[in-house]
Design goal:
This protein has 154 residues and is mainly α. The chain has a single domain, classed as Globins (Globin-like, Orthogonal Bundle). The chain has 8 helices and 2 strands. The chain has a two-stranded antiparallel ribbon. The protein is globular. The N and C termini lie far apart (40 Å).
């Protein structure tokens, strides 16, 4: 019996995710809705996002080891006042970039990926509003084939 690959393995590992985030953030610069959000992004941002996605999709826990896990990601969104238009543009451009790079497009994988992107981007909007706080013990979300293991959201 063959073990089911993780979403991380299915997408092609860290190399595939780094190509995705590099190309995505290149494209963000030309997007009228997203460019202002990321105009002060450092050159290491795409690699950080790739490492975060890798861990969420079942890959190594490098993001947590280097940056502090989900609480760190939440802190990056505090007081950024993100809105639904920006969230939708972010998801759409990321998925379009995945298509552009010929990443796996089978329904099962894309359903899981879209599920995480929708959940994570909505959480980013919530955590970017005034009064949002960071739960330091928030577990790192883990996404799989038809199952999620995300932190509790009140």
């Amino acid at each position: 019996m063959t073990a089911l690959p993780t979403l991380y393995e299915w997408v092609g590992g860290i190399g595939a995710l780094e190509r995705l985030t590099e190309r995505f953030y290149q494209r963000v610069a030309d997007d009228a809705v997203l460019a202002p959000v990321f105009q002060h992004m450092g050159s290491g941002h795409p690699a950080h996002v790739a490492a975060f996605l890798a861990e969420v999709l079942g890959g190594p826990a490098e993001y947590s080891a280097r940056h502090g896990g989900h609480a760190h990601m939440i802190r990056q969104h505090l007081n950024r006042h993100l809105n639904q238009e920006q969230r939708r543009a972010w998801v759409a451009l990321l998925l379009d970039t995945a298509d552009q790079l010929d990443m796996p497009d089978d329904p099962e994988f894309r359903s899981a990926l879209v599920g995480y992107l929708e959940w994570g981007s909505r959480l980013a909007v919530i955590n970017s509003q005034p009064g949002a706080t960071v739960e330091e013990a928030a577990p790192m979300p883990r996404w799989g084939w038809g199952e999620t293991k995300g932190p509790y959201i009140p």
